[in-house]
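I am writing to request your help with a piece of structural work I have in hand. Thank you for your consideration; the sequence and its tokens are set out here:
=====
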Amino acid sequence: MADPYADFAELREERPVFFDEPTGQWIVSRYADVNALLRDRRLGRTYLHVATHEEFGHVPDAEFLRPFWDLIRAGMLDMEPPVHTRLRRLVSKAFTARMVEELRPMVRGLAEELAAGLVAGGGGDLLAEFAEPLPVNVIAEMLGVPAEDRPLLRPWSADICGMFELNPAPDAQRAAVAAAVEFSAYLRELARARASEPRDDLISALAQVVDEGDRLTEDELVGTCVLLLNAGHEATVNITGNGWWSLFRNPGELERLRGDHSLIPSAVEELMRYDTSAPMFERWILEDISVAGVDIPRGDEVALLFASANRDPAVFAEPDRLDLGRDPNPHISFGLGIHYCLGAPLARIELAESFGALLRAAPRLSLIEEPEWKPGFVLRGLKALHVAV
């Protein structure tokens, strides 16, 4: 967990495509193969639009998990065309580039406020006191969640995302179901209130968006809001923590950034590449394919190692070196193809403003102790990051 990159290098060199018995997945580690498969429509995030669980050799979902899967499958990440195409088109009409850019002053203000709090306390856990509150408050502000309800969002998001790890424990499954039920009920009530009395927020916009007579169902609206929170929150927190840990381990590059804040945009891209916060994404094989000379049959699952692809020397010169000015930097941390992250522009704004705020408020920010990693691999991040100012 702490440093998987030597193992990834060995996989790329010796076993770029292989079947992993413990997880029942085909592991794909080279950039060219991951890139191609993300764009290949013979693969899908789901198979339920073309087959049943039984037809793909799987047992149906446990009945107690139904509330969780009903919520998750109402979001576009777990859909395929033509339903995905329709939903993404509708959401894009409300979640526009202009709307996202207009959030920048609000994001900067929140980041500066949190950075000032960290400094006033003489330091602390950068994750708990800075990285975690920022994206939750940004997304809550964007959606229109009242301030008094925002403490509910982080626990719901964390519990739901616990289900995305490989073989989640029974307790994690039950927690995810409970969070899905509570979060869904909360958002339905809020969406209905905004539909009758719209405000200047994304939930109101999603409730009102119409395209050629088509509009979002309530399930789709709720699923979209949950996806925005989970994807936008968990990944951004981990990128921030992993990024600062990378900077502390590379003091020369940290000093370079302190001396030239114009590097922040390229530094954000490089930090996402260097220690990827979402190291692996899965896809189902909808038609027989061949990858690097290896035949993979319909019904099997592939695990695409984004973190390995982002360190592939066939694409990145000196891939194990942190270079905050790296150009070009075609990392795939936001995915590719039709499932490319819809929230990428917002994530880039949040990350640029958060790094900028800390660099200005705490120019000598330093590490107190080496951090420990959480046990998860699908979402990879630190337990804490204790710093002094």
Observations:
- The mean pLDDT is 93.
- The CA atoms of residues 144 and 155 lie 18 Å apart.
